[in-house]
Amino acid sequence: MNYKSTILGGVIAFIIASSCCWLPAIIIAVGGGTALLAISDGLEQYSVIFILLGLSLFGIGIYQLKNKPGKKNIIKPILQSTISCPDCGHKKEESMPIDACQFFYECENCNTIIRPKGGDCCVYCSYGTIPCPPIQLNNPCC
Fold it and tell me: What burial letters (b/e) apply to 14-49, b meaning 16+ CB within 10 Å?
């Protein structure tokens, strides 16, 4: 049950709880008889139950609204990046570590040791198609 339906249930419960006040006036206005008035009068004894139900449903609805699971955006980082060697242009798809930066990478084609460019935290941020997971998650670099 989501918060909208819970709050709607609370509104309906309050409408029923207050029916002893407004329902007789509507029945008389539309020309209803004493049998209908007796039915509306019988609801009065249950008004406390409807009020408690309405308050409970409103409380649950507000709690659900404040703790909506959709509020917390869980971002899953992409863990595959293709590194391009700046010397020979060789490209290779690599798996990135989840919680660390990689400072050195050896090109398998020309055996050059690649280091990050100035200002970048790792080789994936400098030469990869996807930045490292800490950067993707807006976390501080290593």
Answer: bebbebbeebbeebeeeeeeeebeeebeeeeeebee
Return d(Cα 101, Cα 108) in angstroms, integer: 19
Report how far Cα 62 is from the mean position of its chain's Cα atoms: 15
Is the overall model pTM greater than 0.85, yes or no?
no
Dump pLDDT digits (tens) for 40-98: 666 667 777 877 777 787 778 778 777 766 555 577 889 999 999 999 999 999 999 88
Token look-up 């398998």 returns 108
The amino acid at 59? G
- Per residue in 80-93, pLDDT tens? 999 999 999 999 99
Contacts of 128 (CB under 8 A, 6+ apart): 81, 82, 83, 84, 94, 96
Point out which residues pair with 114 in neighbouring strands: 105
